[in-house]
Every structure is written in C-alpha cells, then in structure tokens.
C-alpha cells in the first residue's frame, strides 16, 4: 500500500541538514500534542520532519472508530511505502514514538536510511517481561533510543546491565513514557523533548560527518 504525499505532515526547517520520517505510537496519531512538540524542536535543530499515520490510525481519523494497530509486518510495509513516497534529496533518517520507533528499528537493510531513532522504546509491556529486543543483535543500521528513566515500558534500572551492538541509549532525567518528569525535579516535558531533539541532532551530525 502506498501513501500519497498529501498524507504527510511536513515540518520545514530553515536550513535543513536531514529529513526524518517520524511515525507515531500505538494510541495517538501523527498530529498528537507530543508529536507536534517533538517535530517543532527537531526543526529548530535543522531537521526537516515528515510525519505520517499508519493505515489503522488513518481509518480511525476518518471514521472515529478505534481499532488495534496492524501487525508488525503490515506496519513495516506501510513504513517502507512512506519512505518510497518521501520526495526529498536530503539524507534520510527514520524514527518513531514508542511502537513507531520499534517499527523503525526493524526496517530491512535494503532501505536507504542512515539511522533509526526511537522516542520511548517499548522494550516490554508494562509489568510484563516479554521483551521486544530479539532483533537488536542484527540491526542493519545504528539505533538511537531516547528513554525516560521511569518509563514503564523499560526503565533505567531494568536496562542498567543490558547492551546491544549498534544500540545507543540516551536517558532523560525522571521522564516517563511520554517524557513527563515529576514536578519535584523542576523539569518539564517540554525541556525533555527539547533535549531529545538536541541529542537527535548531534547524532545526525556525527553520522553525516562520517559518510562525507
């Protein structure tokens, strides 16, 4: 299935150095408040953002009737279709919030993408130990994960002794799955989202320098 270009929400940067295809999480679409804030911060760091909805989310927006996300193989096909439709000469990167980050990390090796980013990776369902990292030892490209320290889908204590080749974990102080810290920290969700965009920008800079 191909997604027409009109389905993209494109956030332009003044001096774009890269294009980031950004997919959403399981419960909220490409135009959610979190996705809007993240896209804005990424553009401030000279990253052009192309947001899109998976098919099941498009159906919900059109009909108002919720449904479960499609299975991973279908989501992968839809992400690949979005990449094909992304008409830009900028270096391409992929990313996603939660479920979208998981799908981005699983894209096949023959896709012309330089790296993947996950904003709150769903390492396991909350309070369950069914880990979703079986593919981490065979990643075809670098994977950068920005994770809140208190994330119920994988917190800093659970992941303290875990390492995978090609995976870089960047921890966000006291953040939850949506990068919201507790009030007592003096931090805000907006600050953690800004830190996330800055980290993403630094990693893109390093990759672009290496491929020159």
From TrEMBL:
InterPro entries: AB_hydrolase_fold, KANL3/Tex30_Abhydrolase, NSL3/Tex30
A molecular-function term among this protein's GO annotations: hydrolase activity
One Pfam family recorded for the sequence: Abhydrolase_11
Keyword Amino-acid biosynthesis recorded: no
Keyword set, alphabetical order: Hydrolase
Xref: SUPFAM superfamilies: alpha/beta-Hydrolases (SSF53474)
Gene3D superfamilies reported for this sequence: alpha/beta hydrolase
Chain ranges of the KANL3/Tex30 alpha/beta hydrolase-like domain: 17-204
PANTHER family found in the cross-reference section: TESTIS DEVELOPMENT PROTEIN PRTD (PTHR13136), TESTIS-EXPRESSED PROTEIN 30 (PTHR13136:SF11)
Protein name: Alpha/beta hydrolase
């Amino acid at each position: 299935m191909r997604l027409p270009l009109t389905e993209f929400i494109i956030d332009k940067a003044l001096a774009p150095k890269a294009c980031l295809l950004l997919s959403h999480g399981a419960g909220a679409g490409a135009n959610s408040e979190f996705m809007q804030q993240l896209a804005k911060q990424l553009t401030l760091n000279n990253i052009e953002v192309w947001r899109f909805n998976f098919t099941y989310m498009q159906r919900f927006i059109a009909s108002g009737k919720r449904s479960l996300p499609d299975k991973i193989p279908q989501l992968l096909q839809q992400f690949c279709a979005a990449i094909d439709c992304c008409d830009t000469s900028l270096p391409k990167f992929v990313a996603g919030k939660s479920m979208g980050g998981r799908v981005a990390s699983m894209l096949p090796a023959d896709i012309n993408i330089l790296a993947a980013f996950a904003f709150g990776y769903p390492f396991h369902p909350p309070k369950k130990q069914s880990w979703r990292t079986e593919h981490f030892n065979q990643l075809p490209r670098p994977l950068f994960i920005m994770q809140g320290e208190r994330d119920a889908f994988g917190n800093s204590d659970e992941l303290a002794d875990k390492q995978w080749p090609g995976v870089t974990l960047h921890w966000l102080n006291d953040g939850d799955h949506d990068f919201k810290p507790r009030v007592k920290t003096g931090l805000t969700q907006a600050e953690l989202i800004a830190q996330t965009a800055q980290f993403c920008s630094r990693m893109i800079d390093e990759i672009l320098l290496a491929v020159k």
